[in-house]
């Protein structure tokens, strides 16, 4: 028997994604159930991650665990954010570009900013996050200056990935080129050229 959460996800998936038309009705149903169960499992995993994160942050900021009722509130908020994040990424982010997942009259600027912060937090330990800069924090000005020093003549798309790659390496305390004569300059340039070509081929 399908649990209520998965049933809700199935409804969202049908409404916003639809089903592969090349499949038979039986295969379509199996596909829908499989995808919905996968998304539900990801939501559960994200809830655990974000619950742990918010409780650890409270302990760090306050030097003690949160009182019971406050813990409940923090956990409920973390679970809501986890659900929103996964649904937004798995379903709404795949909408056609001319459609909006959250119309302006349904979500405040604060809620949108909070969702962005949650997405960035989830990906902050991923060394490859620069490949999708939407998962990265905004690069600081010194990183932008370094990027221009290294690759000022490169196309905009190249520079877009480059500044986020540099920022990710700086945040992760990993080596990165500081001049065009630096030993890492060529390998970073090749890596960025590959990412630009990948985007050109796939649109992603």
Task: Describe it.
By secondary structure, the protein is mainly alpha-helical. The protein has helices at residues 4-16, 25-62, 68-90, 109-123, 141-151, 156-171, 185-202. Helix 2 (25-62) runs antiparallel to helix 3 and helix 5 packs across helix 6. The protein is flat.
Radius of gyration: 21 Å
Termini separation comes to 37 Å
Low-confidence regions: 94-107
Helix count?
A: 7
- Mean of residue pLDDT? 81
Q: Helical content, roughly?
A: 55-70%
Q: How would you spell out the order of helices and strands?
A: HHHHHHH
Structural descriptors:
204 residues, mainly alpha, flat
Question: Outline of this structure?
Answer:
The protein has 204 residues and is mostly helical. Helix content is 66%, strand content 0%.
Task: Give the topology, please.
Elements: H1 4-16, H2 25-62, H3 68-90, H4 109-123, H5 141-151, H6 156-171, H7 185-202
